[in-house]
Amino acid sequence: TDFLELLVGGFGRYQWIHITLLSLPGLLMASQNLLNNFVSGVPAHHCSLPANHSIHYLTHLSNLQVDDMQLLKVFIPLDSSGNTLDRCKRYVEPQWQLLAANSTANISHVQTEGCLDGWTFDRSEFFTTTVTEWNLVCSRRSLKQMIQTIYMGGVLTGAIVYGGLADRFGRRSVLIWSYFQLAVLGCGAALSSSYGIYCVLRFLSGMAVSGIILNSLSLKVEWIPTKARTLVGTLGSFVFTIGQMVLAGLAYWLRDWRKLQIVTCAPHFLIFAYSWWYSESARWLVLNHKPEEALKSLHRVARVNGKPEMIDKLTLEVLHCHMNKEIESSRSSFTAYDLLRTRAMRRISICLIAVWSVNTPTSPVFTHLHLYLFTFTCFIYLMQVIFGAIDFPAKLLALGTLSYLGRRVSQAACLFLSGLVIFANIFVPTEMQTIRTLLACLGKGFTSASFTTVYLFTGELYPTVIRQTGMGFVSTMARIGSMAAPAILILDEVLPALPSLVYGGAAVLASCFACFLPETLNFALPDTITAVDMETLLQEFMSLSRE
């Protein structure tokens, strides 16, 4: 899109307005991806006491003063730690002897039962969540993680469906529809009367999120000059970071899952209203044989940019002249098969699938670090702010290492260090919350830096003729790992350290794959698959010569 420099005045007033309006929804995208942390928060809980416990109390303790905690110990055993009440069991018969002074009663073989009368939840941190609404604890605990898995399935489906629809009907149309879909179905989810309905609406909301992310990115890139893309991309990633901290503030303020669901989705009605101002990508219009509409969009952009003199100069002939290369490229069709057709492309694609699977903001490692907030006993809302704030220095560090160490070293190092931090946290006792929190934040920082790297790296590795297909392919494959991420947390029922072993192992394995990617620092962007093959062979030859 270098023709923008000549035809509409480069990066002008229109681009500033366009990028700002497209970036604002990014503040809410973090809310959608991380919403389950708060909407499905698990407060402290224990079995509800039998309905007739007050009668027992009057019968046995009419002359005693007993506080609530002592009374609970009569009905509910302690957990394995011996410090807190068991969350899923209660005594079949009340153990009144435990109230006696210096009681040494042996209760190890006392018969227990499940929570037949439901659960009592602590309301100090969350007023109400999906967990308290539908009792997603104990034997139903896996259903809580399933909500996030189903949402990720929607994100995966949306990447496939809306990616294809955008190529057929245009980025603008699909983006506008995605805003409307998320607004309606997201708010509808807040009114869900059952777990099943809520999961269906979250799945459809996930599809809309994919439509928004993919098409807003395309509209950004295709309406700004090449030299401004790095700056715009960096600023865009910081919007997502700020969104994480905004989510923490909203969740702390509301503490009600239905209200939080509405507040994070209702603004999309406003976004839907102003999104009709967007202009369709001129490049897409020309490549889809709609040059008259492309010319109309370019005239509009030139007018907003204060270049009215360019309107008379912008004709169909001038447009075809400046976009001749793109038009010629569109005559050769490329498919996902071309990503695996040659040895060099296979190597790049396979390695990138492994790297992307642990790198997206909804990937296993990201999800582990966010969902594992609930293993910390410190204030979860503050933790979310810290996790968001750590992205600022991490992304600045990534920009520095990318310029001096190169893409491959930066990618492999960030992934390896994030995996190492997750492994280290396994050996830190749960009582040492400060150290566990610091390690988790450090891991989040390395993972954020890794994501900044892979986003740039992927665009430089794939050739121009198939770059968009390649980005879509690896992004889609990454969603499969995202779907598995929350479900893996359930493995802690088998072994508490097992989820961390899986997540940390995935990051270290991905760092090994990153080592086999060709370096792109100071290399020209490849335009064809042949150029990628030649460049890869040249790097291999230079590596062998040094040895």
UniProtKB/TrEMBL annotation:
Q: Which UniProt keywords apply?
A: Membrane, Transmembrane, Transmembrane helix
Its membrane topology is listed as: Multi-pass membrane protein
Subcellular compartments: Basal cell membrane
Q: Please state the protein's primary subcellular location.
A: membrane
Q: Which residues form the Major facilitator superfamily (MFS) profile domain?
A: 98-522
Q: Which residues cross the membrane?
A: 146-165, 174-195, 231-254, 372-397, 409-428, 434-458, 470-491, 497-517
This protein is called: Solute carrier family 22 member 6
Q: Which GO terms describe its cellular component?
A: basal plasma membrane
Name any one Pfam family assigned in the record. Sugar_tr
GO MF annotations in UniProt: transmembrane transporter activity
